[in-house]
Amino acid sequence: MTYSGTTDRIGEIIEVYTTRFLAQSSGLEDLPHFGSFVRADSQDTNIYGLVYNVHEVNTDPNRRPMALGLEREELLRQHPYLPEFLKIEFDAAVIGFSDGAGIRAYLPPFPPRIHSFVYPCESQEILDLTEDLDFIRSINALPGLPVEELVAASIRLAYAERGGDRAFLVRAGQTIAQLLKDEYEKARSIIRRISDVG
Amino acid sequence: MSGKAQEIGKLIAGSLLSGLEAKLAENVNVEGVSVGRLVVVDGVQNKFFCLLKDVSLEATNEDILLNPPSDDFAKLVHAGINTFYKVSIQPMLITAQNPTEEDRPRPSTTVPPHFSPVCEATEDDVALIFGKPGITNPEIGSPIFMEVPVCLNLERFCKRSNAIFGKSGSGKSVLARMVLGYLVKSDMAINLIFDMHGEYGWSATSEAGIDDPSLKQLLGGKIAIFTVDPKSPLYHRIRPDFDVQIPYSQIEIADLELAAGELGFTQAGIETMYRLSDKWGEDKWLAKFLTMDTDEFAGVVEDLKVNDQALGKLHRCLSRLKRLPFIRNSVADDTVTRIMDFIQDGKHIVFQFGRYNSMLAYILVANILTRRLHKLYVDKTDSARADGIEGPKPLVVTIEEAHKFLDPQVAKQTTFGIIAREMRKYNMVLLLIDQRPSGIDDEILSQVGTRIVGDLGDERDINAVLTGLPSQSTLKVLINNLEPRQFLLTGFALPMPVVIDAKDYGRFCHEVGIGVGAIGDEIERRKARDDLNEQVYGNDEIVFD
C-alpha cells in the first residue's frame, strides 16, 4: 500500500541521488529530527528515507549570518524579515520503498523526483520499515554517514513507536551484533546508545 | 518420559578420531550442560550416540574479549553471535534412524553431516543402547541427569575379568554388592568373594552409619559364608556355613613371597626358604621350622650352609603366622574340597576374615585357596574339553585390595595374575575391587573386560584405569568429574561408556531380596522410628557451613 500526503509535509526535495536525497524544509519551525523516518511521494511510489543531516543556512550563499547577541523572540521582533533570508535543509538516506505491494527495505529502482514533497512517516510505516531491521545494513553501507548515531537514534525511535517493546530492542541489538560482527567497536558503541532506553 | 528429544545445538566441526563439536543453541542454559551426558546426533540416515566430553566458551572476535560487554543488555545481544558455547562430543555408537528389531547399535565408523541437530538422549535411545532391564541384564543405575535404566549385560560380564575402582567413599562397595547380588540372582556364574572387611555377608554399614542388608540377608540359602574366625561378632545373628582352617602344608613359598611386605622378610629370606623346602620337603618345612627353638638354629646353619642371622630373621618373620589361629599343623576338613562341594550345589561363597582382617591373613588365604581352585578348574575344564562335555560353571572370584595380588613385581607369578591373563579359558574370572589401580600391573589392567570406575582423585590411578582403552582423553575428563555414587562404566559388557548415578540400594534390595518381606518390615520399622523421633524431637537439622 502506498501512503498519500495526509500529514503536513515537512519539505520539498531539491537534490536526489540513488541512495539519498536533499530536501528543503517548509518552514523554519518544523525541524525534522535526526534519525527520523520520512517519506517522499513520487510517481505513485513512496520512497523512505532516514534523516541523517539537518542544516540551516542563509538563502544567499554569498552572505554569512552574523552573531547578533539577541534572544530568539527579541531577534524576530527586531528583524521580522529574518526568516526570509534563512532556509532549513535536510539530507535523508534512502532505506526502502513501497510500490503498493508492501514495504521493501532496499533501494528503489529510481530515486524520488526533485520537487516531490516529503512527509514524516506514520506510525504503521515506521513499524513496517523496522520490522526486519534490514535498513541498518543499508545505512551501514553508505559512506560518510554518522552510522553509529543514526542507527541508535532510529532504533530508539522505533522502540518508542512500539510502546517500549523490549523484545524488539533485543532483536535490534542482535541484528547490530550480527551485521557489525567484524566491527565490534562500532557495534558496541551503538548497543551502548540503545541500551539505556530499555 | 520418552518423547521428543530436546535439541541442544548443531554440529559444526570435528572428526571421528578427535570428536565432534557443536554450537550450543542460544536458548540452552550452558550451566545445565554437563560433561558425561549422553547425546544423540541425528544424521540423515543414522543416529549417532555420543558422550558429551567438554564445554567451552568461544568468541568470533578477539575484540570482544579485550573489551567485554559491560551490561546485561550487551551480553544478551552478543550471545550466540559474537560469543557462543561449544560442546565437544565423542561419537561412540551408530544405528539406523528407524532401526528394526535386529538392528543393534554398532561402533561408529563415520560422522554425521554439518549442522546435524544434537539432542539430549531420550529414554528410548538409552533403552536401545543398553537394553531393557531383565534378570541377566539388570539395571545398575541411570545416566546422569536422566531417570532411565542403564543395564549391565551379565552374560558378557562373566566372560572377562572385571574391575570396580574408586577411592574410599566413592560408593564402590555398595555398587560391588549390587553387581554381585545380581550375579548371584541370575546364576550366570558362581561367585567366590574374598570379603576382607565383612561387607558382603549378613549386613554392611553404609556411609551414613546404617546397617544395610547384604548378600546373605538378601539372598539367603544361595549364599554360603566361610570364615576363618567363627567367633567373630559378625556371627551373632547367622551361623557361618564353614569354619576355615588351613594347614601349614598347603602354604607355598610363592604365597609367602606375596606377603613378603606384611611378613617383613627380604630376598635373602626367600632364598633361605627355598633351601629349607628343598631339604625338608615342600609340605613339611614350614611346620617344622616354626616349631624349632632358636638354639636349634646352629645345626640348621651348619646343615644348610645358610647365614645364621638371615635364618633368625626369617624365623621371627614367619612366626607371625602363629598369630593366625586358623593356620594349623593339621586340619579336620579341606576347605577347597568344601568350596568345590558348595560350588557343585550352585551356592555362592562369601569368604570372611572376622577379626583377622589383616592384610597378611587376607593375602595368604585368598592366594592359597585361589591357587588350588584354579588348579582344580584347569583340570576340570581340560578333562571336560577332552570328553567333549560342558566345563564347570564359570567362577567369578572377587578380591578386594586387588593391587596386593597384581602388583607388577608379583603379577607374573601369582594365580590371580594368571587368571586375569588367561581370561575365561578355564571358566574362572576375577572381579577386582580396588582403590589403588595404579598399583596393578599394566598387562593385567589391559585385560580387564569391564571397568566400573568411581571417583579416584589421584592422577596416576586415573591413568591406570584407562590403560588399553580407546578415547582415553574423553574418559579421563569423565572420571575427573565423578561425584560420590557416580560411576563411569566402560568395556566389554557395555555397548558404550556411560556415566551413571548408581541405583538406589533400597531399590536393589527390593528387587533382589528373597526375604523381601523381612527387609520391607525392617525399612518400615526404621521409618516408624524416624517418624517417632521427628515427632518427639522435631526435624531440626544441624547445618555446618
Automatic annotation (TrEMBL), chain A:
It comes from Candidatus Aquicultor secundus. This is Helicase HerA barrel domain-containing protein. The lineage of its organism: Bacteria, Bacillati, Actinomycetota, Candidatus Aquicultoria, Candidatus Aquicultorales. Residues 11-96 form the Helicase HerA barrel domain. Pfam families: HAS-barrel.
TrEMBL record, chain B:
InterPro entries: HerA-like (IPR008571), HerA_central (IPR002789), P-loop_NTPase (IPR027417). It holds the Pfam family DUF87. Residues 139-372 form the Helicase HerA central domain. It comes from the Bacteria. PANTHER family: HELICASE MJ1565-RELATED (PTHR42957). This is Helicase HerA central domain-containing protein. It comes from Candidatus Aquicultor secundus.
